[in-house]
Amino acid sequence: MNPAHQAPYGEGPALELLVHGVGGATPEEMLGDPRTVRITGDTKAAVHRRTDDAEAERHPERYTDRPVPEAYCWSNLTSGNGARALWLLLLPFMVANLAHWMRPRARGSRRTTRLYGVLVRLIALSLTVLLTAAACAVALDLVAWQCAGSAGCAGDRAWLGFLSADRGGWWSQPGRRLALAAVVPAALVTLLWYLSNRTWSAYESQRPPTGEEGFPPDDADDDDLDEEACAPTPDAVPPGGAAEPERPQVVRPALGRPGFWYGRRLVARLRAAHTAAGFLTVAAAVTVPAVRHDQESPDTLPAVLGALLAAALVLAASAVVWVVLRRGRSERRADARADRVAVRVLPGAAVGLLLLGAVYASWSRDAWASSGGLPGEAAAFRAITLVQGGLVVALAVAAAVLHRRARHPRAALRGLGGPAVAMLACALGGVMTGGVAQRVGDWLDGPGTPGMGPHATITGPPVLLSWQASVIPVLLVLLLLPALFLTARTWRAARRLAPVVESEYGEDRPDEVRTRRIAGTRARARLTDDAPVLVGVLAGATLLLGAGAVAGAWISGEVPGRAFAGAGPFVESVADTAQALGSWLVGFGFILFVTLGRRAYRDASARRTIGILWDVGTYWPRAAHPFAPPCYAERAVPDLTWRICTWTARTGGRLVISGHSQGSVLAASAVWQLPAATRRRVALLTYGSPLERLYGRWFPAYFGAAALRDLRRDIDCWRNLWRQTDPIGGPLMIPAEGRHPDVDRAALKDPVVYGRSASHPLPEPILGHSGYQADPAFAEERAQLLARLARAVPRQVRPEAQDSSGRSSA
């Protein structure tokens, strides 16, 4: 900050910056006043004050005994309109992106850490290929190849008449039908590219409030490096700020690096690679059937052209993989450069190959007729599934090595949380793509079952999708066992907690119903800590059953159920039932996704509920999958940091940033980004915070015990409030160290009082995760934080107390 613009006198006013949690909140709710005014910001995210406090800095005498409250509202970043509810269909991409950030904390394991990032990016790439292949299975295989080539299927649908092989029109040849149907998956890829580019422009192009001065150039992918092994870098300087002379260099934590919330270069690079991969998948679906036909044809020219085109597709696919492998995130500076060759050449080349493939497939081939499934499609789905399984296993090995070298006792699944979540992303992708293909196949075949029975008119989707559907009932049964165990354990825990609750409140005549409710709420809140067990069981079962599905599809070939032939009527009956039930469940799951999206478009309450999913899942930048829903924190964290830096520089006052639930994560992230001089004027008050309970366990490299201890050393004033009835928030478990006291306050009572009393004549509710500000402890801790800041911030001399030379008259 320029010294000429510093606050010239006094301690300055005190400001409380409130940050709400998941689900959003209105300024009126946060400030407790129906009359509010927007101080700065736009319709997506803004800072609000009470109307009476709008000019608080001009009247500091009115706020000598209380801080000025401000509310930062960011809910419209994630759930502002109904169209965003359709992002639910991008759930597999979001889950894969989360796996990138779940790696264990590394210590001198640069190669293994880089390998972890590379494997996650490859898994994300496979999901794009899987989604595009599913669109090709529907449009090219089921509609253009099978239904249009079958008189029984196309004859009942007038809209397919011009494609029907029986009518002998220009579009009746298989290659031309495929070229026309390729418009559908190509449009899907274009839509994903457009959404990714548009959301980046709206959310993730916000420059962080830290300058790049003093940060050495770094061409390595910093996210793949050990944060403890990185070269020291100085604290960043806010815009217009003044760096302190001879400031010692310090090692910046990952969340404190100036480029962490500015992923422009990597997102653009990955977007180009994934877009190209999508177009190449469509080009392969159009080209491979024609190439296979021409290889068996006596004509030499089409066979040569097909071979050259296939070689070009392989070469382009290799270039896409190389681009994905080449670079990860760059965080040690706000990297605004662009990889023009990768961003511009790759998608254009892929589109060109798609057009060439469409022209090549449209070549007149009189003897070509479509039968069975689309050539090469079944093998493609098997290859995608095998590659995904192999990548997940390799990722688990890399995660185990990292966790073994730097153990974090609270890490989810002993450091295997990332591989487990990556497996779930692949499973979600399989369920969604398989559900679409199964439902469309059933719809096209009418009363028949695709590929089975005398009434079947089409072969149906690849048999692997049917096998994957058949394992879903088995998977649900396997999940039922731990669910029953956790239910029984929770019930027993509630019974054990009943006397503990009564002793805490010191009731002479306890109410059995009241006690049971409080104890049951506490016991159910502990279920959050068991989430890793369920995720691990689900991921492990999915991997094993998925491998079984691939083996079964390999043995059965193109005929569903052949693997059980000869095993007896009972086994065959069970297999057929499981396959039919699984197919129905897959279709039901996809229909449920679409229904939720439609309901959220019309229903504000449903839109708010779905928005909570994105509040939790899209906190992290898009480091693995560019088509994932956008990262709102790349807008929210710079907003908070800019506000804190500019307000403290302008007023010289003290600031308490007060974060609830997910807001506490944003608040801590903003504090990490502050320069050291600003952090001395800032206190952190968190309540209902998942910083350790969720983020510390699932993201140990960024929010583990070591990272939270480092943050406490950087900020002198930090206090955390929590309840035993809260299923999300919990203690941070940062012990006292030197001059730093405990961060956690003792667990707040919930409810505040057990029964009726003179001061509480009506029963008090069990608040759980909400209502922290209503607790008397909140105002008490806030006052103590401001008092500690007043002692820590040096007083500046008033201008009237200085002589003409600028020296103090005292």
Automatic annotation (TrEMBL):
Segments passing through the bilayer: 85-103, 115-140, 178-195, 272-291, 303-325, 345-363, 383-403, 415-437, 465-486, 531-557, 577-597
Keyword Membrane among UniProt keywords: yes
Protein name: Integral membrane protein
Region (Disordered): 43-62, 204-249
Biased composition regions of type Acidic residues, renumbered to the chain: 215-229
InterPro entries: AB_hydrolase_fold
Keywords assigned by UniProt, alphabetized: Membrane, Transmembrane, Transmembrane helix
Biased composition (Basic and acidic residues): 49-62
Organism the protein comes from: Streptomyces genisteinicus
Entry keyword Transmembrane helix: yes
